[in-house]
UniProtKB/TrEMBL annotation:
CDD domains: HTH_ARSR (cd00090). InterPro entries: ArsR-like_HTH (IPR011991), GAF-like_dom_sf (IPR029016), HTH_MetabolicPath_Reg (IPR050707), Tscrpt_reg_IclR_C (IPR014757), Tscrpt_reg_IclR_N (IPR005471), WH-like_DNA-bd_sf (IPR036388), WH_DNA-bd_sf (IPR036390). Residues 72-255 form the IclR-ED domain. Residues 10-70 form the HTH iclR-type domain. Keywords: DNA-binding, Transcription, Transcription regulation. It comes from the Bacteria. This is IclR family transcriptional regulator. It comes from Amycolatopsis albidoflavus.
């Protein structure tokens, strides 16, 4: 497809992406989609039809609601296999973080009610903790999950928390909704999350968000290690490094997304 002089092809792509983001929150009717993305119904219908033909959108014939299609899950599979562009661009930064902390570095993204590890650089120590690339956990578990929740649009977070099963992974996993809400508020204010044995007994996690231009989490960047090596001073040191690297990657991602 050739771009027209007035940039209509670029606008069509932008609008299609807006539709996918809208459907990422929950299934919507044609009218709801049009309202969310501020387009006319005919324009919205044409875009939805194209996305449906490409497998990116499906429609429930009974209710008429549109939802994300198998093509989107294929993209998610690519991300969970470590094929995310921003992760490629951040490889040097992640390696530097692993080297300066000497602990495992992991990147997680949200997948529905779960979080999935999409990139991991193991600690050089013989005794270490790892998340496991492709492994998913409940999004309420550990510093990575709490970061993804804390830096999520409020309305989306509340919809998720409304019926999120707070199943325990360890005795330290947060299973009380109000306790979780309080921690998420603190994490959002501090810009950093900690966990002590919430996902794996004896493991300590320090996590900062990799954010988009709006400040919402695209991913969670964590340093994970055994509590025997991660005392208060070491955690404070790791926190500084995680913040700096997460901010650097976020700036790169935000800058790239603003390029026309």
């Amino acid at each position: 497809m050739t771009e027209t002089p007035d940039g209509s092809t670029v606008r069509a792509v932008s609008r299609a992406i807006d539709i996918l983001f809208a459907l990422g929150h929950n299934p919507l009717t044609l009218g709801d989609v049009a309202e969310v993305v501020s387009l006319s119904k005919p324009t919205t219908y044409r875009l939805l039809s194209t996305l449906r033909a490409k497998g990116m959108v499906v429609q429930d014939q009974a209710s008429g609601h549109y939802g994300l299609g198998p093509g989107c899950f294929h993209l998610m599979s690519s991300i969970s296999n470590g094929n995310a562009g921003f992760i490629f661009e951040a490889t040097d930064a992640l390696e530097q973080l692993r080297d300066v902390t000497a602990e495992t570095v992991a990147v997680h993204v949200r997948a529905g009610r779960s979080r999935i590890c999409v990139k991991e650089l193991p600690s050089p120590h013989l005794i270490r903790y790892i998340a496991g690339v492709g492994v998913s956990e409940g999004i309420h578990t550990g510093s990575a999950g709490k970061t993804l929740l804390a830096f999520m649009p409020e309305a989306e977070r509340e919809r998720l928390l409304k019926d999120l099963p707070l199943d325990p992974t360890t005795p330290n996993t947060i299973t009380d909704l109000e306790t979780l809400r309080a921690q998420l508020k603190s994490i959002a204010a501090a810009g950093i999350a900690h966990s002590h044995g919430e996902r794996a007994v004896g493991a300590v996690g320090v996590t900062a968000p990799i954010t988009d231009a709006n400040g919402f989490a695209l991913a969670a960047l964590s340093v994970i290690g055994p509590e025997g090596r991660l005392g208060k001073e070491k955690i404070a040191e790791i926190e500084r490094h995680v913040r700096e690297v997460a901010a650097r990657i976020s700036a790169t991602v935000s800058g790239a997304s603003e390029v026309d």
